[in-house]
Amino acid sequence: MAVARGYFQLTRLHKPFMGNTLIWTIVYDTIYACQDREDDRKVGVKSTALLFGERVREILSLMVGALLVSLAYAGWATRQGMGYALLSCGGTLAHSVWQLATWNEADLKDHRAKFELGNGADDVAQSNGFVGCVIWLGILYDYLSVL
């Protein structure tokens, strides 16, 4: 209710983190949605997979670039250290490069495979959730290093 009463104000850091969440959601959801392009066309769903068309990899690469710039800005603005830069920003970069470089758009099974870390059917860890953990670990490392 704090938002409704006007107590909650967006700071300069809320915007980058909200933007990061939006960007990352579009990136991973678009990769996943590409497996349903034909069905989306048939039923008239307007997805980012269809919107981005043949330039999907390039557009997602630009979005990841914006995500990294925003992460770096948030780290700079909060005076994060090398742990944040290496773990949060570097980890996000490494994961994104791996994901976009190894993604086979023609293989429908590969769209889903980008969401799984392991090979087992019971593996609940998802590679895109891993990015959130990597960002958090960088923040935690920097926090613990100043205690």
TrEMBL record:
The keyword Cytoplasm does not apply. Pfam families: UbiA. GO terms for cellular component: mitochondrial inner membrane. One of its GO terms (molecular function) is 4-hydroxybenzoate polyprenyltransferase activity. It is a multi-pass membrane protein. InterPro entries: Prenyltransferase, UbiA_prenyltransferase. It is found in: Membrane. One of its GO terms (biological process) is ubiquinone biosynthetic process. The chain crosses the membrane at residues 59-76, 124-144. It comes from the Eukaryota. Keywords: Membrane, Transferase, Transmembrane, Transmembrane helix. Its cofactor is Mg(2+). Belongs to the UbiA prenyltransferase family. This is 4-hydroxybenzoate polyprenyltransferase, mitochondrial.
